[in-house]
Design goal:
heterodimer, A: alpha/beta, Alpha-Beta Plaits, 6-stranded mixed β-sheet, binds adenosine-5'-triphosphate, binds magnesium ion
Chain lengths: 326, 285
């Protein structure tokens, strides 16, 4: 694969804030025409990474190229190739929706007429026509997000960065956003998005990078990622919490999983490659005198992916629970 | 978003998989031409005007202040300082004008700070536009505020009986001089706006500088009534020169040395603070 086939080609990106290495040597390769998901918990460095790729932040180390153009040396060119929808509203809320889009269109070099025409089309496509002249302060979160995305598409950039495009959206609006993203890519754009939801990365992305505390801890297709955590997750609740250590040891012996189990309240959750082994486990638990109050087999969640890859949970809450049990 | 076809997307990049060598029919370049810089700045200025239109309450300082201050100062101090209202008007109208318009220029810095903290600034920075355009646009749009304050002060003066003997041409020229000087001074506050952490600190610092400058001048009272040491300061205070320049122009139609000094002063401020501001701004932008 030559470098020009890569929409994003980053090596060893580093960004430090004081002593905090927010991004600590990130490598990314995004094939043109694909959807790339960057998955990570709060504070993982997703926004910081995107900001460096989008020329908003100067990297402290490493380098990145967008369609072969260096983000630092050719920042002007890179800005012509990208559209950025930030995590937080990046439209002007003292202006109306149409005024925002026309302003961005004019700044992108469109004539007044073209800017208006494209703005109107975009508002139509994003079902915002009725609210075109309303002040943004009265927009719902979903409308704002849609306007934000629309504003990134004025110049039809070949690469679009979306920082947590669906956080805070209701399920229906989230599905619409997913459809929009898929359509963009179907028409030849490349999309790089960040998310905190495994489900979203799974649904949308051709490849996923899992990042944690500024590092890429896993990279691959959704299937590869899920395979690495097991096809499913076994969740058990013990009658007597004192048996926890013995139960976990039994699960290690029988299921052969590495890494750490996730704890949610009384519930113990472990990855499982082969659901068939459950029977063996149940037999073994009984023979060791460990009694179950509840048992279920489920698909792995982001928590389990994180536990298995990084050894700690995705949510701070999971960390604390784990600590309480350890 | 629920519509079946996404037009924008179908207009999408010409050849998927390869870097486009043009966007919106323009070739890719790394630099922004001067013509484009001007056009981007004008677009940003237009945004500033739209914002003023959307939130007219931010015009209070340039509308209410000239009216109230002119009324207050004239009727309170007129008799004491000049014997009667009519003979105080030629003194106070230029004084109020300079004080109001210069004070208005603080807003540039405050609003710039507020603006730079907004998410939309991230988008501006991600667009292939002249880096300087948001700054230039803000400074440009604010001249509208100075013009409003200038016009209102003069109109108030006329209503209260001030007759500018210099003629309408001189009054317009005097107004322009004040607007130019306020614009120059707004670079100082823009600099604070860029380097400060919060909008209220910009407001605070600016007022500490401006208050002594405008009051320790010849704007409101004859200099002769002040103690000697103060007179020394008042004479070198650039605000005094500007006030004198406006008085000479509007009242007598005379282009004096003070106008030249004021304009040179304005040029010096711009020469010092424009590069400083732009450098600090570029580092953040
Ligand atoms: N401007 C900044 N100054 C100082 N520290 C920062 C700055 N921006 C980010 N950080 C720190 O860098 C780390 C990564 O932040 P970043 O915003 O990239 O995370 P994220 O993955 O986008 O998280 P979230 O899901 O909450 O958006 C965090 O520890 C954050 O506190
Ligand atoms: Mg973020």
């Amino acid at each position: 694969m030559t470098s020009t086939e890569l929409a994003v080609d980053a090596t060893g990106l580093v960004k430090t804030f004081g002593t905090n290495r927010a991004v600590d040597g990130v490598d990314l390769a995004v094939r043109a025409g694909s959807i790339y998901g960057v998955l990570g918990p709060n504070g993982a460095g997703k926004t910081t990474t995107i900001s460096m790729l989008a020329t908003l932040l100067r990297p402290d180390g490493g380098s990145a190229r967008i369609f072969g153009h260096d983000v630092q040396r050719d920042a002007g060119i890179v800005r012509q190739l990208i559209g950025v929808t930030g995590q937080y509203a990046s439209v002007d809320d003292s202006l109306s929706a149409i005024e925002n889009l026309v302003l961005f269109g004019r700044l992108l070099g469109l004539s007044g007429r073209d800017a208006k025409r494209i703005a109107k089309n975009l508002l139509d496509e994003f079902s915002l026509s009725d609210a075109a002249t309303r002040p943004l302060k009265k927009f719902s979160g979903g409308m704002r997000r849609r306007l934000d995305l629309a504003a990134s598409l004025i110049a039809q950039p070949p690469l679009i960065f979306l920082d947590e495009p669906t956080t805070g959206l209701d399920p229906r609006t989230r599905n619409q956003m997913w459809d929009t993203i898929r359509r963009l890519v179907a028409n030849g754009s490349t999309v790089m998005l960040t998310t905190q939801y495994l489900d979203e990365a799974d649904q949308l992305a051709d490849r996923i990078a899992v990042i944690d505390t500024g590092r890429v801890v896993a990279e691959g297709t959704a299937d590869q990622l899920k395979a690495s955590v097991g096809a499913s997750a076994l969740q058990v609740t013990l009658t007597d919490a004192h048996d926890t250590d013995a139960a976990v040891q039994t699960m290690r012996d029988v299921l052969g999983f590495r890494g750490n189990p996730a704890f949610r309240g009384d519930q113990i959750s472990v990855p499982m490659a082969d659901a068939d082994r459950v029977t063996d486990l149940l037999v073994e638990l009984r023979s060791r005198g460990i009694h179950l109050a509840e048992m279920s087999v489920q698909k792995p969640t982001l928590d389990e992916v994180f536990l298995s890859i990084t050894g700690h949970g995705a949510e701070p809450a999971a960390d604390e629970l784990e600590g309480a049990h350890a | 978003m629920s519509t079946a076809s996404l037009d924008t997307a179908s207009r999408g990049p010409a050849s998927p998989g390869s870097p486009s060598d043009s966007v919106l029919g323009r070739p890719l370049t790394n630099s922004v031409s001067l013509a484009d810089t001007v056009s981007h700045s004008l677009s940003m200025a237009k945004r500033g005007l739209l914002k003023i239109k959307r939130t007219p309450e931010q015009l209070i300082d340039v509308t209410v202040q000239p009216i109230i201050f002119t009324l207050m100062f004239t009727y309170i101090f007129g008799g004491a300082i000049s014997g009667d209202i009519a003979s105080y008007l030629p003194v106070i109208i230029p004084g109020i004008l300079v004080q109001t318009v210069i004070t208005t220029s603080v807003v540039t810095g405050v609003q710039l700070r507020e603006d730079m903290d907004k998410g939309v600034f991230d988008r501006f920075r991600s667009l292939p536009i002249a880096r300087i355009a948001p700054l230039a646009g803000a400074l440009l749009a604010d001249t509208v505020r100075y013009t409003i304050a200038t016009t209102l002060t003069f109109v108030m003066g006329f209503i209260m009986g001030w007759r500018a003997s210099g003629g309408i041409g001189s009054v317009v020229l005097a107004g322009l001089a004040v607007i130019v000087c306020a614009w120059a001074i707004s670079w100082i506050f823009a600099f604070f706006g860029v380097i400060a952490r919060t909008a209220s600190s910009v407001q605070g610092i600016s007022m500490i500088i401006l208050f002594p400058l405008t009051f320790l001048s010849n704007a409101f009272v004859p200099v002769e009534t002040m103690p000697d040491w103060l007179q020394g300061f008042v004479h070198v205070n650039p605000i005094s020169h500007l006030v004198t320049a406006v008085r000479e122009l509007a009242n007598n139609g005379v282009v004096g040395a003070d106008l030249v000094i004021s304009l040179i002063g304005a040029a010096v401020i711009v020469a010092v603070f424009a590069p400083l501001t732009v450098r600090a701004y570029m580092r953040k932008a």
